[in-house]
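Handoff note, outgoing to incoming analyst
You'll be picking up this chain. Sequence as last confirmed:
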Amino acid sequence: MRICRVDKENISNILENLLKRSPNQYGSYQSAVDEIVADVRENGDAALFAYAKKFDKADLTADNLCVTEEEIKEAYDAVDPSLVEVIRRAGANIRAYHERQKRNSWFESQPNGIILGQKVTALASVGIYVPGGKASYPSTVLMNTLPAKVAGVGEIVMATPAGADGKVNPVTLVAAHEAGADIIYKVGGAQAVAAMAYGTESVKKVDKIVGPGNIYVALAKKSVYGHVSIDSIAGPSEILVLADETANPRFVAADLLSQAEHDELASAILVTTSENLAKAVSEEIDEFTKTLSRREIICKSLENYGYILIAENMDEAVDIANEIASEHLEIVTADPFEVMTKVKNAGAIFIGEYSSEPLGDYFAGPNHVLPTNGTAKFFSPLGVDDYIKKSSIIYYSKEALAPVKDDIIRFAEAESLTAHANSIKVRFEKGE
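Most recent structure output, in case you need it:
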């Protein structure tokens, strides 16, 4: 893994390199995605089922599109009971954390006849996309579904691709049932996003679509935004570790590799004040990589987007971390809580040598759907707020409006909006 000392030029080059991973840079895929989206919007089920056959080899119809109760039961029979218990314990942690994010409506009444407030309403329906194929992602199911349940969303539907046998991964089904999904559709890809965005004869239109997926799913979400809301356009996974000479190099190396194994576009960066640690971590990475099952993916990821940066001091290291604004940030220093106070930009912050990133991925409770590609500078993790909307409440009595009416009229006339001004004036005409 390459080691270099920090300077303005190489940090600029690294940032430029990392930004190449953004889904916004993959315009060559957009036309194909737009064609699928338009086809599903126009032709509904016929297009949806044709794409399921083409891409997933699954024979879907209106009759077998939705997962049945019998299939849920079969899934429980197929999954090791000990894994079901792990899913339940993780789900309890995730639910408890997100319960603390709930907002209440509020109203403030003033003596002069004014009532102001905010009404919080859960979304009526949400569509959750869950990747499928040979792998299963129960953590993705829990992280996207449970905040919606906590928020009080009226109906939660899930789309996940079926295999050629028409079956959905049983672990995914168990997690969906445990989390409380109401409907599960056996479709994936851009066509599933389009179906949930516009509705078909068999798929209900939703108000918002959340969840990760490949570049086709990401660009489909981008295409339908405005017809429905979306959570974000997620990029490849990334981790940045802030460490000093007290860090355990074996732990640090293992944590960097935990993200590098996601895919070839994943990014793993160590920023340290210790040259000795930098060298030791690099050696540990070489040793780990020899035995890990996803060795080829890891090597490609580290070759393209892996860095060990040596900073002059911890303040410089933190500045770099804030500039990169990583999805996952681990702080492994002598005083990690003090360093944490200086961090401004990160999706999730893991403090101390026993708070490794997979703890957040699966079990601790905070959401693992996080901003990527530097968007932690202005985006937040997925949470209960993503499943609600807010309405402003305004009430003025005539007595409250009277002393401010001239100010409003003056504002309106300054903008040449005379009908606005008139709307106030008519309330104070003679006899009113």
